[in-house]
Amino acid sequence: MILFARLMNNSKSWAIFAGVTLVAAFEFSRIHVPYCVKNKFKYRCRYVVKHFVAKAARLGSVLKINSEPVLYRNLLKCIRFIQRIDEKNFKTINIIDSTAKKCKIRIYSPKNSTDDLQPAMFYYHGGGFCFNSIDDYHHILLPLASELEMILIAVEYPLAPEHKYPIPIEEAFSETNYVLNNQEKYDLNIDLNRIVLAGDSAGANIATVLSNKFRFINENLPMLQVLINPPTQYFNMLLPSMIKYASIENFMPRSKMILWHLGIGHVKNIQEDFLLRNYHTLLIDEHFREKLKSYTDVNLIPEAYRDGFGYYESYDKLKDLVYPQKIEDHRNNLDENFKISLKQLFNVDVSPGLADDELLKKQPKTFMIISEQDTRKDEGLIYAQRLSNNGVQVDIALYDNVFHTSFFYPEETNHPMRGDIVSFLKKNL
Question: DSSP class of residue 65?
Fold first, then answer.
Protein backbone atom coordinates (compact mmCIF):
# COMPACT_ATOMS: atom_id res chain seq x y z
CA MET A 1 0.00 0.00 0.00
CA ILE A 2 2.86 2.40 0.84
CA LEU A 3 4.52 1.65 -2.51
CA PHE A 4 1.21 2.19 -4.30
CA ALA A 5 0.72 5.53 -2.53
CA ARG A 6 4.20 6.69 -3.54
CA LEU A 7 3.56 5.73 -7.14
CA MET A 8 0.30 7.62 -7.16
CA ASN A 9 2.07 10.83 -6.08
CA ASN A 10 3.59 10.83 -9.55
CA SER A 11 1.30 12.40 -12.17
CA LYS A 12 2.66 10.05 -14.86
CA SER A 13 1.76 7.07 -12.70
CA TRP A 14 -1.74 8.44 -12.25
CA ALA A 15 -2.12 8.80 -16.00
CA ILE A 16 -1.00 5.21 -16.58
CA PHE A 17 -3.30 3.91 -13.84
CA ALA A 18 -6.25 5.87 -15.21
CA GLY A 19 -5.52 4.65 -18.74
CA VAL A 20 -5.29 1.00 -17.71
CA THR A 21 -8.51 1.36 -15.68
CA LEU A 22 -10.36 2.89 -18.62
CA VAL A 23 -9.14 0.19 -21.01
CA ALA A 24 -10.12 -2.53 -18.54
CA ALA A 25 -13.56 -0.98 -18.04
CA PHE A 26 -14.03 -0.69 -21.80
CA GLU A 27 -13.04 -4.31 -22.39
CA PHE A 28 -15.29 -5.41 -19.51
CA SER A 29 -18.26 -3.62 -21.06
CA ARG A 30 -17.53 -5.20 -24.48
CA ILE A 31 -17.91 -8.78 -23.22
CA HIS A 32 -20.86 -10.21 -25.09
CA VAL A 33 -23.73 -11.11 -22.75
CA PRO A 34 -26.84 -12.81 -24.18
CA TYR A 35 -30.01 -10.94 -23.25
CA CYS A 36 -31.35 -14.04 -21.46
CA VAL A 37 -28.76 -13.49 -18.69
CA LYS A 38 -30.37 -11.79 -15.70
CA ASN A 39 -27.23 -10.56 -13.91
CA LYS A 40 -24.97 -9.24 -16.64
CA PHE A 41 -22.39 -7.91 -14.20
CA LYS A 42 -21.99 -11.33 -12.58
CA TYR A 43 -21.73 -12.97 -16.00
CA ARG A 44 -18.96 -10.57 -17.05
CA CYS A 45 -17.09 -11.08 -13.76
CA ARG A 46 -17.16 -14.84 -14.18
CA TYR A 47 -15.98 -14.48 -17.76
CA VAL A 48 -13.04 -12.31 -16.68
CA VAL A 49 -12.06 -14.76 -13.93
CA LYS A 50 -12.17 -17.75 -16.26
CA HIS A 51 -10.29 -15.83 -18.93
CA PHE A 52 -7.57 -14.96 -16.40
CA VAL A 53 -7.39 -18.55 -15.11
CA ALA A 54 -7.15 -19.86 -18.68
CA LYS A 55 -4.21 -17.53 -19.40
CA ALA A 56 -2.49 -18.56 -16.17
CA ALA A 57 -2.96 -22.23 -17.06
CA ARG A 58 -1.57 -21.57 -20.54
CA LEU A 59 1.50 -19.92 -19.04
CA GLY A 60 1.97 -22.83 -16.65
CA SER A 61 1.80 -25.23 -19.57
CA VAL A 62 4.48 -23.26 -21.45
CA LEU A 63 6.66 -23.42 -18.33
CA LYS A 64 6.08 -27.22 -18.24
CA ILE A 65 4.50 -27.10 -14.77
CA ASN A 66 1.69 -29.34 -15.97
CA SER A 67 -0.70 -29.62 -18.88
CA GLU A 68 -3.04 -26.69 -19.48
CA PRO A 69 -6.33 -28.48 -18.67
CA VAL A 70 -4.97 -29.92 -15.42
CA LEU A 71 -3.71 -26.50 -14.32
CA TYR A 72 -6.99 -24.84 -15.34
CA ARG A 73 -8.96 -27.44 -13.41
CA ASN A 74 -6.82 -27.06 -10.28
CA LEU A 75 -6.76 -23.26 -10.38
CA LEU A 76 -10.54 -23.13 -10.64
CA LYS A 77 -10.81 -25.36 -7.58
CA CYS A 78 -8.79 -22.80 -5.63
CA ILE A 79 -11.00 -19.84 -6.49
CA ARG A 80 -14.42 -21.29 -7.26
CA PHE A 81 -17.17 -22.24 -4.87
CA ILE A 82 -19.36 -25.07 -6.07
CA GLN A 83 -22.86 -23.71 -6.63
CA ARG A 84 -24.81 -24.49 -3.49
CA ILE A 85 -28.32 -25.82 -3.15
CA ASP A 86 -30.30 -26.33 0.05
CA GLU A 87 -31.13 -30.03 0.18
CA LYS A 88 -33.75 -29.33 2.88
CA ASN A 89 -35.98 -27.99 0.14
CA PHE A 90 -36.05 -31.41 -1.50
CA LYS A 91 -37.34 -33.63 1.29
CA THR A 92 -38.92 -36.16 -1.07
CA ILE A 93 -35.55 -37.21 -2.57
CA ASN A 94 -33.01 -39.65 -1.16
CA ILE A 95 -29.41 -38.82 -2.08
CA ILE A 96 -26.83 -41.59 -1.90
CA ASP A 97 -23.15 -41.26 -2.84
CA SER A 98 -21.56 -44.51 -3.91
CA THR A 99 -19.17 -46.01 -6.43
CA ALA A 100 -19.56 -48.14 -9.53
CA LYS A 101 -16.38 -49.92 -10.48
CA LYS A 102 -13.70 -47.24 -10.05
CA CYS A 103 -15.72 -44.02 -10.15
CA LYS A 104 -18.21 -42.08 -8.06
CA ILE A 105 -21.91 -42.10 -8.72
CA ARG A 106 -24.70 -40.17 -7.02
CA ILE A 107 -28.16 -41.69 -6.83
CA TYR A 108 -31.25 -39.51 -6.48
CA SER A 109 -34.39 -41.53 -5.78
CA PRO A 110 -37.94 -40.66 -4.67
CA LYS A 111 -38.60 -41.55 -1.04
CA ASN A 112 -42.27 -42.39 -1.31
CA SER A 113 -42.45 -44.31 -4.56
CA THR A 114 -44.91 -47.22 -4.49
CA ASP A 115 -43.92 -48.59 -7.90
CA ASP A 116 -42.41 -52.07 -7.99
CA LEU A 117 -40.27 -50.99 -10.93
CA GLN A 118 -39.17 -47.43 -11.59
CA PRO A 119 -37.78 -45.65 -14.64
CA ALA A 120 -34.24 -44.36 -14.33
CA MET A 121 -32.13 -41.68 -15.96
CA PHE A 122 -28.34 -41.95 -16.17
CA TYR A 123 -26.80 -38.50 -16.47
CA TYR A 124 -23.31 -37.73 -17.81
CA HIS A 125 -21.95 -34.28 -17.02
CA GLY A 126 -20.42 -31.84 -19.49
CA GLY A 127 -17.01 -30.20 -19.48
CA GLY A 128 -15.27 -31.15 -22.72
CA PHE A 129 -14.17 -34.50 -21.22
CA CYS A 130 -11.64 -32.43 -19.23
CA PHE A 131 -13.57 -30.56 -16.55
CA ASN A 132 -16.37 -30.75 -13.95
CA SER A 133 -17.74 -33.54 -11.79
CA ILE A 134 -21.02 -34.83 -10.37
CA ASP A 135 -20.51 -32.41 -7.44
CA ASP A 136 -20.52 -29.47 -9.87
CA TYR A 137 -23.87 -30.66 -11.24
CA HIS A 138 -25.63 -31.27 -7.92
CA HIS A 139 -27.46 -27.90 -8.07
CA ILE A 140 -28.94 -28.95 -11.43
CA LEU A 141 -29.67 -32.61 -10.93
CA LEU A 142 -31.34 -32.48 -7.51
CA PRO A 143 -34.17 -30.17 -8.69
CA LEU A 144 -34.44 -32.20 -11.90
CA ALA A 145 -34.80 -35.45 -9.95
CA SER A 146 -37.38 -33.84 -7.69
CA GLU A 147 -39.53 -32.73 -10.62
CA LEU A 148 -39.16 -36.01 -12.48
CA GLU A 149 -40.05 -38.16 -9.45
CA MET A 150 -37.89 -40.97 -10.80
CA ILE A 151 -34.46 -42.45 -10.17
CA LEU A 152 -31.64 -40.29 -11.47
CA ILE A 153 -28.04 -41.51 -11.37
CA ALA A 154 -25.18 -39.08 -11.97
CA VAL A 155 -22.16 -40.86 -13.38
CA GLU A 156 -18.58 -39.67 -12.86
CA TYR A 157 -15.93 -40.57 -15.43
CA PRO A 158 -12.13 -40.11 -15.65
CA LEU A 159 -11.04 -36.82 -17.20
CA ALA A 160 -8.68 -36.08 -20.08
CA PRO A 161 -5.89 -35.59 -20.90
CA GLU A 162 -4.66 -37.88 -18.09
CA HIS A 163 -7.33 -40.36 -19.19
CA LYS A 164 -7.50 -40.03 -22.95
CA TYR A 165 -10.05 -41.49 -25.34
CA PRO A 166 -11.44 -44.12 -25.13
CA ILE A 167 -11.12 -44.29 -21.31
CA PRO A 168 -13.92 -41.80 -20.41
CA ILE A 169 -16.35 -43.56 -22.76
CA GLU A 170 -15.38 -47.06 -21.64
CA GLU A 171 -15.60 -46.18 -17.95
CA ALA A 172 -18.98 -44.48 -18.33
CA PHE A 173 -20.31 -47.55 -20.15
CA SER A 174 -18.80 -49.92 -17.58
CA GLU A 175 -20.25 -47.98 -14.63
CA THR A 176 -23.72 -47.75 -16.17
CA ASN A 177 -23.75 -51.43 -17.02
CA TYR A 178 -22.50 -52.31 -13.53
CA VAL A 179 -25.34 -50.41 -11.83
CA LEU A 180 -27.94 -52.04 -14.05
CA ASN A 181 -26.58 -55.51 -13.30
CA ASN A 182 -26.07 -54.93 -9.56
CA GLN A 183 -29.21 -53.08 -8.52
CA GLU A 184 -29.47 -54.92 -5.20
CA LYS A 185 -26.16 -53.37 -4.11
CA TYR A 186 -27.77 -49.91 -4.37
CA ASP A 187 -31.25 -50.95 -3.24
CA LEU A 188 -32.69 -50.04 -6.63
CA ASN A 189 -35.62 -51.43 -8.58
CA ILE A 190 -35.05 -50.11 -12.09
CA ASP A 191 -37.31 -51.02 -14.98
CA LEU A 192 -34.87 -51.99 -17.73
CA ASN A 193 -37.48 -51.13 -20.34
CA ARG A 194 -37.66 -47.50 -19.13
CA ILE A 195 -34.05 -46.33 -19.16
CA VAL A 196 -33.04 -42.81 -20.20
CA LEU A 197 -29.49 -41.80 -21.11
CA ALA A 198 -28.89 -38.06 -20.85
CA GLY A 199 -26.14 -35.48 -20.71
CA ASP A 200 -25.02 -32.03 -21.75
CA SER A 201 -22.10 -31.14 -24.01
CA ALA A 202 -19.45 -33.88 -23.68
CA GLY A 203 -21.94 -35.78 -21.53
CA ALA A 204 -24.43 -35.69 -24.41
CA ASN A 205 -21.73 -37.15 -26.64
CA ILE A 206 -21.23 -39.95 -24.09
CA ALA A 207 -24.98 -40.59 -23.87
CA THR A 208 -25.18 -40.91 -27.66
CA VAL A 209 -22.22 -43.28 -27.88
CA LEU A 210 -23.57 -45.39 -25.02
CA SER A 211 -26.97 -45.62 -26.68
CA ASN A 212 -25.21 -47.25 -29.63
CA LYS A 213 -23.36 -49.65 -27.36
CA PHE A 214 -26.36 -50.68 -25.28
CA ARG A 215 -28.55 -51.20 -28.34
CA PHE A 216 -26.23 -54.03 -29.37
CA ILE A 217 -26.95 -55.69 -26.00
CA ASN A 218 -30.66 -54.92 -25.65
CA GLU A 219 -32.68 -53.32 -28.45
CA ASN A 220 -34.99 -51.71 -25.86
CA LEU A 221 -32.21 -50.09 -23.83
CA PRO A 222 -32.25 -47.17 -23.60
CA MET A 223 -35.87 -46.31 -24.21
CA LEU A 224 -35.09 -42.59 -24.59
CA GLN A 225 -32.14 -40.23 -24.79
CA VAL A 226 -31.93 -36.56 -23.84
CA LEU A 227 -29.12 -34.65 -25.54
CA ILE A 228 -28.33 -31.09 -24.44
CA ASN A 229 -26.15 -29.14 -26.88
CA PRO A 230 -24.47 -32.32 -28.12
CA PRO A 231 -21.12 -32.36 -29.93
CA THR A 232 -21.77 -35.11 -32.45
CA GLN A 233 -18.85 -34.92 -34.87
CA TYR A 234 -15.24 -33.73 -35.17
CA PHE A 235 -14.96 -34.03 -38.95
CA ASN A 236 -15.99 -30.56 -40.10
CA MET A 237 -14.63 -27.91 -37.73
CA LEU A 238 -15.91 -25.10 -39.97
CA LEU A 239 -19.68 -25.45 -39.89
CA PRO A 240 -21.54 -22.10 -40.09
CA SER A 241 -22.33 -21.89 -36.36
CA MET A 242 -18.69 -22.71 -35.54
CA ILE A 243 -17.52 -19.77 -37.61
CA LYS A 244 -20.25 -17.45 -36.36
CA TYR A 245 -19.82 -18.10 -32.63
CA ALA A 246 -16.12 -19.01 -32.38
CA SER A 247 -15.35 -15.81 -30.46
CA ILE A 248 -17.61 -16.88 -27.59
CA GLU A 249 -15.14 -19.68 -26.80
CA ASN A 250 -11.92 -17.72 -27.17
CA PHE A 251 -10.65 -18.27 -23.61
CA MET A 252 -11.21 -22.05 -23.80
CA PRO A 253 -11.38 -23.08 -27.48
CA ARG A 254 -13.22 -26.24 -28.36
CA SER A 255 -10.35 -27.29 -30.63
CA LYS A 256 -8.03 -27.59 -27.64
CA MET A 257 -10.50 -29.67 -25.67
CA ILE A 258 -10.81 -32.06 -28.59
CA LEU A 259 -7.04 -32.57 -28.67
CA TRP A 260 -6.94 -32.95 -24.89
CA HIS A 261 -9.59 -35.64 -25.21
CA LEU A 262 -7.14 -37.49 -27.47
CA GLY A 263 -4.48 -37.26 -24.75
CA ILE A 264 -2.45 -34.38 -26.19
CA GLY A 265 -1.85 -32.42 -23.00
CA HIS A 266 0.47 -29.75 -24.37
CA VAL A 267 -1.24 -28.49 -27.51
CA LYS A 268 0.86 -26.49 -29.96
CA ASN A 269 -0.64 -23.67 -31.99
CA ILE A 270 0.20 -25.44 -35.25
CA GLN A 271 -1.65 -28.56 -34.05
CA GLU A 272 -4.72 -26.55 -33.12
CA ASP A 273 -4.55 -24.72 -36.44
CA PHE A 274 -4.29 -28.03 -38.32
CA LEU A 275 -7.59 -29.14 -36.79
CA LEU A 276 -9.38 -25.80 -37.14
CA ARG A 277 -8.57 -25.59 -40.86
CA ASN A 278 -9.95 -29.09 -41.47
CA TYR A 279 -6.61 -30.41 -42.69
CA HIS A 280 -7.30 -33.57 -40.71
CA THR A 281 -10.00 -34.42 -43.28
CA LEU A 282 -7.16 -35.01 -45.77
CA LEU A 283 -5.73 -37.82 -43.65
CA ILE A 284 -8.33 -40.27 -44.97
CA ASP A 285 -8.99 -41.58 -48.47
CA GLU A 286 -11.23 -39.64 -50.85
CA HIS A 287 -14.15 -42.09 -50.76
CA PHE A 288 -14.35 -42.03 -46.96
CA ARG A 289 -13.95 -38.26 -46.95
CA GLU A 290 -16.84 -37.76 -49.38
CA LYS A 291 -19.06 -40.03 -47.29
CA LEU A 292 -18.35 -38.08 -44.11
CA LYS A 293 -18.92 -34.81 -45.96
CA SER A 294 -22.40 -36.07 -46.86
CA TYR A 295 -23.01 -36.95 -43.18
CA THR A 296 -22.20 -33.38 -42.12
CA ASP A 297 -23.83 -31.54 -45.02
CA VAL A 298 -25.24 -28.18 -43.92
CA ASN A 299 -28.16 -28.70 -46.32
CA LEU A 300 -29.43 -31.37 -43.92
CA ILE A 301 -30.43 -28.56 -41.56
CA PRO A 302 -34.13 -27.85 -42.19
CA GLU A 303 -34.85 -24.47 -43.77
CA ALA A 304 -36.90 -23.48 -40.72
CA TYR A 305 -33.71 -23.39 -38.63
CA ARG A 306 -31.67 -21.53 -41.25
CA ASP A 307 -34.16 -18.96 -42.48
CA GLY A 308 -33.30 -15.42 -41.43
CA PHE A 309 -29.72 -16.19 -40.37
CA GLY A 310 -27.30 -14.48 -42.73
CA TYR A 311 -24.34 -16.64 -41.79
CA TYR A 312 -25.90 -19.58 -43.63
CA GLU A 313 -26.43 -17.53 -46.79
CA SER A 314 -22.74 -16.59 -46.99
CA TYR A 315 -21.47 -20.09 -46.16
CA ASP A 316 -21.48 -21.33 -49.78
CA LYS A 317 -18.76 -18.82 -50.62
CA LEU A 318 -16.43 -20.51 -48.11
CA LYS A 319 -16.51 -24.02 -49.58
CA ASP A 320 -12.90 -23.96 -50.76
CA LEU A 321 -11.77 -22.92 -47.29
CA VAL A 322 -14.00 -25.41 -45.47
CA TYR A 323 -12.54 -28.42 -47.26
CA PRO A 324 -8.94 -27.72 -48.34
CA GLN A 325 -7.53 -29.67 -51.27
CA LYS A 326 -4.06 -30.14 -49.85
CA ILE A 327 -2.06 -29.67 -46.66
CA GLU A 328 0.35 -26.75 -46.81
CA ASP A 329 3.97 -27.90 -46.69
CA HIS A 330 4.93 -26.42 -43.30
CA ARG A 331 1.87 -28.05 -41.71
CA ASN A 332 2.51 -31.39 -43.38
CA ASN A 333 5.65 -31.82 -41.30
CA LEU A 334 3.71 -32.48 -38.10
CA ASP A 335 4.57 -35.59 -36.13
CA GLU A 336 3.04 -38.75 -37.62
CA ASN A 337 1.78 -39.83 -34.18
CA PHE A 338 -0.24 -36.63 -34.04
CA LYS A 339 -1.85 -37.43 -37.40
CA ILE A 340 -2.59 -40.97 -36.26
CA SER A 341 -4.28 -39.58 -33.15
CA LEU A 342 -6.42 -37.26 -35.25
CA LYS A 343 -7.77 -40.17 -37.28
CA GLN A 344 -9.52 -41.34 -34.12
CA LEU A 345 -11.88 -38.38 -34.53
CA PHE A 346 -13.61 -40.28 -37.35
CA ASN A 347 -14.46 -43.18 -35.04
CA VAL A 348 -18.19 -43.32 -34.22
CA ASP A 349 -17.30 -43.69 -30.52
CA VAL A 350 -15.82 -40.18 -30.73
CA SER A 351 -18.08 -38.73 -33.42
CA PRO A 352 -21.44 -40.55 -33.24
CA GLY A 353 -22.78 -38.19 -35.90
CA LEU A 354 -20.52 -39.94 -38.42
CA ALA A 355 -22.29 -43.27 -37.96
CA ASP A 356 -23.74 -45.05 -40.97
CA ASP A 357 -27.50 -45.14 -41.46
CA GLU A 358 -27.83 -48.72 -40.24
CA LEU A 359 -26.48 -47.73 -36.83
CA LEU A 360 -28.61 -44.58 -36.63
CA LYS A 361 -31.77 -46.61 -37.23
CA LYS A 362 -31.18 -48.32 -33.87
CA GLN A 363 -31.11 -45.09 -31.86
CA PRO A 364 -33.94 -44.48 -29.35
CA LYS A 365 -36.50 -41.72 -29.40
CA THR A 366 -34.57 -38.53 -28.77
CA PHE A 367 -35.15 -35.15 -27.15
CA MET A 368 -32.51 -32.69 -28.30
CA ILE A 369 -31.87 -29.25 -26.85
CA ILE A 370 -30.08 -26.82 -29.18
CA SER A 371 -28.80 -23.34 -28.30
CA GLU A 372 -28.55 -20.69 -31.00
CA GLN A 373 -25.38 -19.04 -29.67
CA ASP A 374 -23.37 -22.24 -29.66
CA THR A 375 -20.69 -23.54 -32.01
CA ARG A 376 -22.31 -27.01 -31.66
CA LYS A 377 -25.68 -25.81 -32.96
CA ASP A 378 -25.32 -27.04 -36.55
CA GLU A 379 -23.93 -30.48 -35.83
CA GLY A 380 -26.79 -31.08 -33.40
CA LEU A 381 -29.38 -30.10 -36.00
CA ILE A 382 -27.66 -32.18 -38.70
CA TYR A 383 -27.55 -35.22 -36.42
CA ALA A 384 -31.21 -34.75 -35.49
CA GLN A 385 -32.17 -34.68 -39.15
CA ARG A 386 -30.11 -37.78 -39.94
CA LEU A 387 -31.84 -39.61 -37.10
CA SER A 388 -35.21 -38.47 -38.39
CA ASN A 389 -34.32 -39.55 -41.93
CA ASN A 390 -33.65 -43.02 -40.51
CA GLY A 391 -36.99 -43.35 -38.80
CA VAL A 392 -36.02 -42.20 -35.29
CA GLN A 393 -38.49 -39.84 -33.64
CA VAL A 394 -36.68 -36.64 -32.62
CA ASP A 395 -38.15 -33.73 -30.67
CA ILE A 396 -36.07 -30.57 -30.95
CA ALA A 397 -36.16 -27.59 -28.61
CA LEU A 398 -34.13 -24.71 -30.05
CA TYR A 399 -33.61 -21.69 -27.81
CA ASP A 400 -32.89 -18.49 -29.71
CA ASN A 401 -30.65 -16.53 -27.40
CA VAL A 402 -28.95 -18.97 -25.07
CA PHE A 403 -25.37 -20.23 -25.10
CA HIS A 404 -23.62 -23.57 -24.78
CA THR A 405 -23.45 -23.74 -20.98
CA SER A 406 -26.86 -22.18 -20.23
CA PHE A 407 -28.14 -25.45 -18.76
CA PHE A 408 -25.35 -25.26 -16.16
CA TYR A 409 -26.49 -21.79 -15.01
CA PRO A 410 -30.28 -22.10 -14.61
CA GLU A 411 -30.45 -19.32 -12.05
CA GLU A 412 -28.91 -16.81 -14.46
CA THR A 413 -30.81 -17.49 -17.66
CA ASN A 414 -34.49 -17.31 -18.51
CA HIS A 415 -34.78 -20.64 -20.29
CA PRO A 416 -37.28 -23.48 -19.78
CA MET A 417 -34.81 -26.31 -20.49
CA ARG A 418 -35.40 -28.24 -17.28
CA GLY A 419 -39.16 -27.92 -17.58
CA ASP A 420 -39.06 -29.07 -21.19
CA ILE A 421 -36.99 -32.13 -20.25
CA VAL A 422 -39.44 -33.01 -17.47
CA SER A 423 -42.41 -32.62 -19.81
CA PHE A 424 -40.81 -34.81 -22.49
CA LEU A 425 -39.94 -37.59 -20.07
CA LYS A 426 -43.27 -37.61 -18.24
CA LYS A 427 -45.04 -37.81 -21.58
CA ASN A 428 -42.91 -40.61 -22.99
CA LEU A 429 -41.99 -42.86 -20.03
Answer: S
